[in-house]
């Protein structure tokens, strides 16, 4: 059973897009954009869906909260911070790109980490790419291709780990990358996100991103 007691959910319907708060989500919320059962979470984000403020693309995506539903934000120095998942990508938009995990910064529209699946028509497989801003003021940041050749509907795992000392480790499908973030991140309130954040906003209502998670865990180990 995947614990939804420390997440809320943004779905791409309404203006602004609807947020399903933690208590309702944990009680078994389901609709066309999200469903859960004993073993899986399924996310669907059509390219025609509504978009959150300051975003260009629609999403069906979880955002970290406390168990009472209040937003959880943390500073990396307070604990060992881990987001771990097992999932498969079932459908991609025309761009081929879906963000599947993030470390976001509460005071900015630019996250520290975006983990993205990038499908390639030529190979009929996708790359798993990390986009990392080691300094809060970085506009572009680094782009690291973690692994190539991940097929649609193929199960794989990922982990994003940020230590109290600022060591950032990202692993996907057995490949590991490590670096250290700039200490100026130390005062920034951060939070995890996971789901299907499509990087496309044009096409038919049947076009979009579908992702199935079979494991999803957050840990803040003090």
Characteristic terms for this protein:
222 residues, mainly beta, 2% helix, single chain, Jelly Rolls, eight-stranded antiparallel beta sheet
Helix-strand blueprint:
Elements: E1 7-10, E2 19-20, H1 22-26, E3 34-36, E4 41-46, E5 59-64, E6 80-91, E7 97-105, E8 113-120, E9 125-132, E10 142-150, E11 156-162, E12 167-172, E13 175-180, E14 190-198, E15 208-221
CATH third-tier fold name: Jelly Rolls
What is the tally of beta strands? Answer: 15
Strand numbers in spatial order across the main sheet: 2-1-5-14-7-8-9-10
> If helices are DSSP runs of H or I spanning 4 or more residues, what is the number of helices?
1
Instruction: Tell me the strand percentage band.
Output: over 45%
Please tell me what the overall shape is: globular
- The CATH class is Mainly Beta
Number of domains: 1
How far is the first residue's CA from the last residue's CA? 24 Å
* Main sheet: strands, sense, barrel: 8 strands, antiparallel
How big is the Rg? Answer: 16 Å
Q: Spans with pLDDT under 50 lasting ≥5 residues?
A: none
Written overview of the protein:
The structure is a single chain. With 222 residues, the chain is mostly beta strands. The chain has a single domain, classed as Sandwich (Jelly Rolls), CATH 2.60.120. Helices cover 2% and strands 49% of the residues. The chain has one helix and 15 strands; from the N terminus they run ββαβββββββββββββ. The protein has one helix spanning 22-26; strands at residues 7-10, 19-20, 34-36, 41-46, 59-64, 80-91, 97-105, 113-120, 125-132, 142-150, 156-162, 167-172, 175-180, 190-198, 208-221. The strands form two sheets. The chain has an eight-stranded antiparallel beta sheet with strand order 2-1-5-14-7-8-9-10. A seven-stranded antiparallel beta sheet has the order 3-4-15-6-11-12-13, with no helix packed on it.
């Amino acid at each position: 059973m995947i614990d939804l007691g420390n997440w809320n959910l943004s779905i791409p319907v309404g203006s602004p897009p609807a947020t399903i708060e933690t208590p309702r989500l944990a009680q078994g919320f389901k609709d066309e954009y999200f469903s859960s059962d004993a073993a899986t979470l399924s996310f669907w984000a059509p390219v025609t869906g509504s978009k959150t403020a300051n975003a260009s693309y629609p999403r069906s995506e979880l955002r970290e909260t406390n168990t009472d539903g209040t937003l959880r934000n943390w500073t990396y120095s307070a604990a060992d911070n881990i987001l771990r998942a097992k999932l498969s990508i079932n459908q991609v938009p025309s761009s081929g790109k879906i963000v599947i995990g993030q470390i976001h910064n509460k005071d900015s529209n630019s996250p520290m980490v975006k983990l993205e699946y990038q499908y390639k028509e030529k190979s009929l497989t996708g790359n798993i790419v990390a986009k990392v801003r080691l300094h809060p003021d970085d506009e572009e940041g680094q782009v690291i291709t973690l692994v190539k050749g991940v097929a649609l509907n193929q199960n794989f795992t990922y982990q994003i780990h940020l230590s109290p000392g600022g060591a950032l480790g990202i692993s996907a499908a057995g490949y590991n990358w490590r670096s250290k973030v700039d200490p100026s991140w130390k005062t920034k309130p951060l939070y995890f996100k996971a789901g299907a954040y499509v990087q496309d906003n044009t096409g038919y209502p049947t076009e979009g991103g579908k992702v199935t998670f079979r494991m999803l865990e957050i840990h803040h180990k003090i």
